[in-house]
Design a protein that fits this description.
Blueprint (H helix, E strand, L loop, with lengths): L13 H13 L15 H14 L9 E4 L2 H12 L6 E5 L3 H10 L3 E7 L2 E2 L1 H7 L5 E4 L13 H14 L2 E5 L24 E6 L11 E4 L5 H11 L5 H12 L2 H28 L3 E2 L8 E6 L5 H10 L5 E2 L12 E5 L6 H9 L2 H7 L2
Parallel strand pairs: 2-3, 2-5, 5-6, 6-7
Antiparallel strand pairs: 1-8, 3-4, 7-8, 9-10, 10-12, 11-12
């Protein structure tokens, strides 16, 4: 329960998916039993390009879409293709916990830039790391603070990249889920110099076990990505790609996203109300416009790791916010998902489980 990033599995259209899966199996041809294309099955690349052009404001062709195994596969492929060992890579602080762990393993020159209520501090970036070669950012819904990168900072970041031949890696992990206004356009949609490499995944919109993601490659890099994929990637299963393609092309994907936006808004409201009901003023949340998790900030104290451990013992898979920071200036709280909480009463019941131990820690 409460694990961040897990979609509402109880509301997934299983019957439609199983029907499409059966059709894909029955239509399987002999040539599809060979090794899959390393860049991805062409009809899926076409479907994703069409979806991104309409829903995320991108202007890309199917040839620029590369199918990957998800977040880690995309990030590794980008850096293997375009980065050298001496390149400076900049990440958000706080930033996606698993991304931090991966980058620390594969990037010798990894640095961080603080995030405030307007997203990544681009003034800090330009002052301290103007020589960076790559910036990895979550502009639509920052992970984990859930803020949105402001328009002036987006433009500043794009101008810097264009002037310095640097690359921006846009991780749009849950950009589809904005509730109180239309879905924000992606950073890539503002990119006039083709310096943004766009990453997406179906883990949040369909299911984590699908293990499919995609990269939108700048036109000038397509050949380089193709060469790297030939060497290092083996391609994703064609059968899975065919099912997903039908799911998108038949309109099920769009309808599912529309349904989930309304559902997640309701479930987020339940979680915030339940948090206030159970814990009063011990936690507070900041108003944000979407996503798949909230941050319950501690009103006082810095014992979020102890609290997170206490909650985890009650099968509540929350994360301590401070663990997502690399440097100083930490904030403290719990990162928690709400997508699979099915009622307000269930939210209250779940949050009540660790109440006595939590209150003891917060005295």
């Amino acid at each position: 329960f409460l694990r961040p990033g897990i979609p509402a599995l109880d509301s997934f259209p299983y019957k439609k998916w199983l029907l499409l899966a059966g059709q894909a199996v029955r239509a399987m041809r002999q040539e599809e039993m060979l090794s899959p294309p390393v860049m991805g099955w062409t009809p899926l690349r076409q479907a994703i390009a069409s979806y991104l052009n309409i829903s995320r404001g991108l202007s890309c062709t199917p040839d620029q879409v590369l199918i990957t195994s998800g977040y880690s596969g995309s990030l590794r492929l980008i850096l293997d293709t375009l980065a050298s060992r001496n390149d400076k890579v900049v990440f958000e602080d706080p930033g996606y916990f698993m991304g931090q762990q991966l980058l620390r393993r594969i990037v010798p020159r990894l640095h961080t830039v603080p995030v405030d209520r307007s997203g990544m501090d681009t003034d800090y970036l330009l002052h301290h790391h103007p020589d960076a070669r790559f910036v990895i950012v979550t502009p639509s819904h920052q992970s984990p603070l859930a803020v949105t990168l402001s328009l002036p900072r987006r433009q500043q970041l794009l101008d810097w990249a264009g002037q310095n031949d640097a690359w921006i890696i846009e991780d749009d992990y849950d950009g589809e889920f904005h509730y109180t206004r239309k879905v924000l356009p992606s950073l890539k949609s503002l990119d006039r110099q083709d310096r943004v490499i766009y990453m997406g995944t179906f883990s949040k919109t369909v299911m984590p076990s699908l293990r499919l993601g995609y990269v939108v490659m700048p036109a000038s890099t397509v050949s380089a990505f193709n060469d790297t994929a030939d060497l290092l990637a083996s391609g994703q299963p064609v059968l899975t790609q065919k099912i997903l393609t039908a799911f998108i092309n038949d309109g099920h994907f769009f309808r599912h996203l529309k349904k989930m936006r309304a559902l997640y808004q309701q479930r987020r409201d339940w979680m915030i109300a339940a948090l206030h009901e159970v814990y009063g003023e011990r936690f507070f949340t900041e108003q944000n416009d979407g996503g798949m998790h909230i941050v319950a900030f501690l009103t006082k104290g810095s014992c979020d790791r102890e609290i997170a451990h206490c909650w985890q013992q009650q099968q509540l898979q929350v994360n301590a916010l401070s663990a997502w920071y690399s440097g100083s200036g930490k904030r403290y709280g719990l990162v928690m998902g709400y997508n699979n909480v099915r009622s307000y009463d269930e939210a209250v019941a779940l949050l009540t489980r660790p109440k006595s131990q939590t209150c003891d820690l917060l005295k």
